[in-house]
Amino acid sequence: MVDSARSLRSVDSRSPAVTRAVALVEELARQRRPVGIAELARALDLAKSSVANLCAALEGTHMIRRVEGGWALGYKVVELGQAFLAGTDLVEEFRRTATTLPVGAPETMLLAVLEGTEVVYLARHDGCQPVRLASDIGRRMPAVVTALGKAMLASNQPPKGRMRNPTANTTAVDRSCAVRLPRGKNAAAK
To answer: Which segments constitute the HTH iclR-type domain (predicted)?
Structure first.
């Protein structure tokens, strides 16, 4: 996503074209719908001809695709995301990231997977809050009795007209979640 106060017409980069191409892909990801050349040009503060050239180059690499109504992300983005996930230790990444979050670092955060109807805790970041959780790493809990489990169940709704098998495991992308717990005296009760 491009900062609205920043123009991509003049970019301080060793490779301005690459910087602009990445900004275009980020804008398509942010929009979550097909976007036309004119709208992309306005959002990126670039000439339509430059955006058209970027789109053609990105289409050639399958990073974006031409669809009715404009341009959308291409399958190559999914391939790259999957390659990142395959080469990333999820628990280690959680631990590293949890300590660097300006708002989250002082809070207690959990990483878990939804396995059937249960939550399995993979990692915990203990912030500086006085309330500690009874969520040991490796512990299984019914998803419906934990805030994290409820959040994961709510975000794992099936498409309309299809029943979800509650005993089926969710995918690695769907089932990973860190949730910031609420503050206050009722936090332990939730």
So the answer is: 15-75
Task: State the Cα–Cα distance between residues 127 and 51, nearest whole angstrom.
Answer: 45
Which strands sit side by side in the sheet containing 118-125, from one edge to the other? 140-142, 118-125, 109-115, 177-180
Mean pLDDT (the chain, rounded): 79
Q: Are the beta carbons of 109 and 180 closer than 8 angstroms?
A: yes
- Is pTM beyond 0.70? Reply is no
The span from the CA of 126 to the CA of 128, in Å, is: 7
For the purposes of burial, counting CB atoms within 10 Å of the CB of 87, is it exposed (0-12), middle (13-18) or buried (19 or more)? exposed
CATH C-level class of 16-81: mainly alpha
Encoded amino acid at 143, one letter: A
pLDDT recorded at residue 157:
66
The Cα 139–Cα 158 span in angstroms is 26
Tens digit of each residue's pLDDT (9 = 90 or more) over 96-112 = 888 888 887 888 888 88
Helices (H), 32-144: 37-44, 48-60, 75-86, 90-100
**CATH 3.30.450.40 describes domain 88-189:** yes
